[in-house]
Amino acid sequence: MSDKIQIKKEMILDSALQIFVSKGYSDARMDDIVELSGMSKGAIYYHYNSKKDLFLALIDHWELHTFPNFYDKNKNGIPASEILRSFADVVADVFEKRKYVFLAEVEFWALANRDEDVKDRTKKLYQKILILFEKVLSKGINKGEFKNVNPRMAAIAIMTTLQGVNWFCVFEHKEFTAREYLSEVTEFMIQGFKVKSL
C-alpha cells in the first residue's frame, strides 16, 4: 500500500474514531465522517464498503495507533515487573493526551455485545494483548522474579486493571488521577506476583 493511500485511510479512521466516540455507533453517519475528514464520500466508500466495515477496521487501527509501544521487542534485559510498569505508564500517557480513545473502547464493548463480527474482531485484539501479558508473566516466572502464578489468569487481571481507566473517562473521577490509579494498582499486582525474599 502506498504512503498516500495509507495517509488517507488513517485520516478516515481518525475521523471515524472521533465520530463514533461522540455520537455512538448507531447515531454516527458516514456523512459525519465525510465532513470531519474533509474527504469525499466516494473516497471513503472506496476504502470501506459500509459503516460496519469502517468500524471493524477501526478496532485494528485503535490498537496499532493508540498503543504502538506495547509490542516493542527490545525488552530482553528488562525485569518483568518493569515491563508491567511500562504498560501502565503507556496507558496513562495515552489517557492524558487522548482520553477519547478509551471511550472508543467502551463503544467496541457495547457493539460487541450485539454484533458477532465486532465481538470476534474485539476478541482477537484482546487475545493478542493477553498473549503479550502472558509472555511477560512467564518471563518473570522463568527468571525467578514471580511466583508460579497462572499466566492466563494473571494476564486477565492485568488487562482488566488497565481497562479500569475507562471508568475515569465515563465518570471523571476527581479524588485521584488515572495515572495514580494505574500506578498504584499495577504495583499491588506486581507485589502479589513477586517471589518474597527471605
Please provide a written account of the structure:
There is one protein chain. 76% of the residues lie in helices and 0% in strands. By secondary structure, the protein is mainly alpha-helical. Helix 1 (3-27) crosses helix 6 and helix 6 (100-112) crosses helix 9 (165-171). The chain is elongated and about 65 Å long.
The shape, in one word, is elongated
Class from secondary-structure proportions? mainly alpha
Unreliable stretches: none
| Major sheet characteristics | none
Quote the beta fraction: under 5%
Provide the residue-averaged pLDDT.
Answer: 88
Number of strands: 0
> What is the count of helical runs?
10
Helical residues, percent: over 70%
User: What is the oligomer described by this structure?
Assistant: single chain
Order of helices and strands: HHHHHHHHHH
Q: What is the straight-line distance between the termini?
A: 57 Å
Kindly provide the radius of gyration, computed on alpha-carbon positions and rounded to a whole number of angstroms.
Answer: 19 Å
Q: How do you describe this structure in short?
A:
With 198 residues, this protein is an all-alpha fold. The chain contains ten helices and no strands. Helix 1 crosses helix 4 (51-66), helix 6 crosses helix 7 and helix 7 packs across helix 8 (151-163).
Provide tags for this entry.
10 helices
